[in-house]
Structure formats: structure tokens, C-alpha cells
UniProtKB/TrEMBL annotation:
One cellular component term from this protein's GO annotations in UniProt: plasma membrane
Name under which the protein is recorded: ATP-binding cassette domain-containing protein
Subcellular location: Cell membrane
Native source species: Pedococcus sp. KACC 23699
Listed GO MF terms: ATP binding; ATP hydrolysis activity
Presence of the UniProt keyword Transport in the record: yes
Start and end residues of each ABC transporter domain: 5-233
């Protein structure tokens, strides 16, 4: 089994409500993984089970080939829960030192790490500020720092980007990338699909407590069978399209033609056919965005696909 987390057929119910209905997925180390899914899909429940905060009714979670038993197996992990939990009257610095100490760091180590992290998050000048006097986004960054202060190798973050301004999004993205490049396993949930598309190597998408898509972002986009060819044509002649019955016209405005390209059709043959009828001024093959894959998967059009 490869390095990383393996989730096998995890089931969890709250009373009559099935929150997780057999989730299976992999979260590799050294790659950034985004956990996606509509509201109520089961992301937070899954993360709490990964952490051992909740016990699954069925299924197993493995790390680096070793089955995880209880919360003690995860004591060194970093976790940012969706419901934030900071002490409002404590200063930012004291708060971080406190969380570092809870994870077994000495006061000196915790203070050093806390100073580094507040610097990295551009909150160094807020060391002595009471937490409840920080802005919402600053509290969010401080919360993130509490998850990272002990230098964890496994980091699970529930909606860390929610409510952050674009500069803070950029900072947090770089922070997570640095952790991943150092070999950490980082998984975070988000509804910001453009961000996940740009930032993550891998995704896991859940809906109604089941995995509907998982694997590499590039592989899933390429394998989706929803490619489009964009052509800018000098001629309005479209007779050549008749040789490609599976191809559909998405739009045909002025000289700009957009076509769907089913998996069995070679896009270059389409291009050649268009060129045989007149000059092609511009062209491009477009893969579906993560948003489009998400909408297709969430509307139940797709079964679980795992692509690497
Ligand atoms: N403590 C609980 N008691 C009862 N039902 C719960 C509890 N926590 C979650 N659920 C239910 O489990 C399902 C999954 O919820 P969960 O919080 O995991 O979704 P989510 O994907 O994190 O959604 P969101 O994007 O809104 O954060 C929902 O139907 C929710 O109502
Ligand atoms: Mg949630």
C-alpha cells in the first residue's frame, strides 16, 4: 500500500440519518488533496472520522499501511475543525504557545514555532492582541496556526479558506504547498472550486455520503469525456461537421465555433476537417473545469470514478 491515508468503505449514521454511506478514497502524502461536496455531503463527518473524533459505524482508516485504531493514533496530527475553537480572551501568542504545549512542545519550542508561524501568516505584530480583537480573517489564520504549531505530518483542515481575503488565500495556499513539498499529507475541504483546481493535485468528491469522484485533478478533467474544441473560422461553411455524428455544436457565433468532442473522436481530425473548408484563425481544446465536473457529479450523472 502506498504512503498516505486509505479510507475503506466508511459508514456513519446519526440516528436514522446516513451521513457516510461507504466512502472509499485515498489521500497520498506529498500531494495536496481537496475534499469537495455539496452542503451536507458528509465532508466534516469524514474528517472527524479521519481524526478519530467520531468513531465510524463501519469501515477502516489506514495510514501508511497501518490501520488506525483510536484517537491516540492521531495525537500528532494537525486539525482545524469547521466550528472554530479559540479562547477569545487569550492573546494570539499565548494561544499558540498553549496549543503547542498541549501537543508536547516545551515552552521554548512552542514560543519559537508560534513566532515563526505568526510571521508566516503576517500576524507577527498581533502577538499581544486579544483573540477577540482580531478580525474574522485574522482569527481564522490564528486557528490555522494552532493546527500547525507542532509541525504535524498529517494535516486535516475543514474549510480553511472560508472567509479569507484574496491575499490571505494566497498566503494560506503557499503555506499548504510548502508543507506538502516537505512531504506532509494535507487534505482540506472547500467550496472554492477554482482555487482547488489551481492548488490541488488530487481531489475527493463526496455526495450523499458516497465518493463520486476521486483522483488527480488533471486526470479527472482529461478523462471526463467532456472536452470541447474551440475554433475561430474564416468560413461559415459547416458541412464538414456531418462526418462527425457524435460531435455537438455548443455555440456558433460570428467566426467562433464551439464543439463537444466525445472520447471516440480525435480532435485533430476535426481540426483537419475544418481546415479543409477554409483557414482556421485560432483553435483550442478545452477541458471541463472542476466546477463542471462537480455539477455533473452532484446532479447524479456520474458513478464513482477514480482516476490517477
Ligand atoms: N451531530 C449530528 N447529528 C445529526 N446529524 C448530523 C450531525 N452532524 C452532521 N449531521 C448530518 O450528517 C450529514 C453530513 O453532514 P456534514 O456536516 O458531514 O456535511 P458537510 O459535507 O461537511 O457539509 P457543509 O458543506 O455544509 O459543511 C448531514 O445530513 C448532517 O445534517
Ligand atoms: Mg462541513
Amino acid at each position: 500500500m502506498s504512503d498516505g491515508l486509505q479510507v475503506d468503505d466508511v459508514v456513519h449514521t446519526f440516528g436514522d440519518r446516513v451521513a457516510l454511506d461507504g466512502v472509499t478514497c485515498q489521500v497520498p502524502s506529498g500531494r495536496l488533496t481537496g475534499l469537495l461536496g455539496p452542503n451536507g455531503a458528509g465532508k466534516t463527518t469524514l474528517m472527524r472520522i479521519l481524526l478519530g473524533v467520531l468513531t465510524a459505524d463501519g469501515g477502516e482508516v489506514w495510514l501508511d499501511g497501518r490501520r488506525l485504531e483510536d484517537v491516540h493514533d492521531r495525537h500528532a496530527w494537525g486539525y482545524m475543525p469547521q466550528e472554530r475553537g479559540l479562547y477569545p480572551a487569550m492573546t494570539a501568542g499565548a494561544q499558540l504557545v498553549h496549543f503547542g504545549r498541549l501537543h508536547g512542545l516545551s515552552r521554548q519550542q512552542a514560543t519559537l514555532r508560534a513566532r515563526d508561524l505568526l510571521g508566516e501568516l503576517e500576524l507577527a505584530d498581533r502577538w499581544d492582541e486579544r483573540t477577540d480583537r482580531l478580525s474574522g480573517g485574522m482569527q481564522q489564520r490564528l486557528q490555522l496556526a494552532t493546527a500547525l504549531v507542532h509541525g504535524p505530518h498529517v494535516v486535516v483542515l475543514d474549510e480553511p479558506f472560508a472567509g479569507l481575503d484574496p491575499v490571505a488565500v494566497e498566503q494560506l495556499s503557499s503555506m499548504l504547498r510548502r508543507r506538502v513539498e516537505d512531504g506532509c499529507l494535507v487534505v482540506f475541504s472547500s467550496h472554492q472550486l477554482d482555487l482547488v483546481q489551481d492548488l490541488c493535485e488530487d481531489i475527493v468528491m463526496v455526495d450523499h455520503g458516497r465518493t463520486v469522484l476521486s483522483g488527480s485533478v488533471s486526470g479527472l478533467r482529461a478523462a471526463s469525456g467532456q472536452r470541447r474544441l474551440r475554433l475561430s473560422l474564416a468560413s461559415s461553411e459547416r458541412g464538414w461537421l456531418e462526418s462527425f455524428p457524435g460531435v455537438q455544436v455548443v455555440s456558433d457565433l460570428a467566426d467562433d465555433l464551439r464543439l463537444t468532442v466525445p472520447p471516440e473522436v480525435d480532435a485533430l481530425q476535426l481540426l483537419d476537417a475544418a481546415r479543409s473548408c477554409g483557414p482556421v484563425l485560432d483553435f483550442g481544446l478545452e477541458l471541463p473545469t472542476l466546477s463542471e465536473l462537480f455539477l455533473a457529479a452532484a446532479s447524479g450523472e456520474r458513478r464513482h470514478e477514480a482516476v490517477r
